[in-house]
Design a protein that fits this description.
Blueprint: H1 12-15, H2 18-32, H3 39-54, H4 60-83, H5 104-129, H6 133-142, H7 148-177, H8 186-217, H9 236-258
Length: 259
Amino acid sequence: MRQFVWHEADSYLHRLNPLTKLALTLPVALLVSTIDEPLTPLAIAAVAALATWCLGNVPLMGVLRPLAFSLVLGFGMFWTGTLYYAGQGAGGPSVVPGPLHISAASLTYGLAMVARLLAIFATSSLFVLTTNPVDFVIALIHQARLPVRVGYAVFAAYRFVPLVQEELDNIRAAHQVRGVAYGRGPVARARQTVGYAIPLLAISVRRAERVALAMDSRGFGARKDRTYYRSTSLSRSDLTFAVGAAIVLVLILVVPRAI
């Protein structure tokens, strides 16, 4: 889960309004899901990763880790999509030697599925790695007019991701110190999962109770005319980024077809 946690830095992307970056991520995810060839999603993923690295001041390994995770997930999608493809061109000549029949159309379909996933992960990483969760919730409240109660619930859920990872590491370390041995095999793996899940669930419930008590003690939601220590706004940089991203996206979609 660490590869999907905000990277604190001072960069052009970090200073943008979170909703501007979110407005790029969602349309791209819908767009690449309709593309049936792999080159266009790969180009989108490359541009998004390069922007995260150069404009977001995120270390190169921090950019590549989510993409590597998407490739691991995409491997299963690739071989199932390739082997069980039944669309147009599936009965064509095989492009690989051996007993498996893999046509050019089925291979293109499998690669397109992996490329789509890669593009979605790359654009999502641009948003996640360069967006402070607090700023994101404030932007939802101020610019998107999200109710305060819902906004704080979103922030609490977002904030729990790194905390859960930290607590899981502590539980693993405690088991190692105590010499807990689960053995090998699926049964041992299931016992190990239960051994981690039960204390992790108990810790999460206690954290939720403390958050609820803190909200009640501070009178959260008692008044509608509340003030904010931090605020977000839309600036000229957001407009520049949105126009530039739209131009790059149109070029990626149009130029290869024009050639």
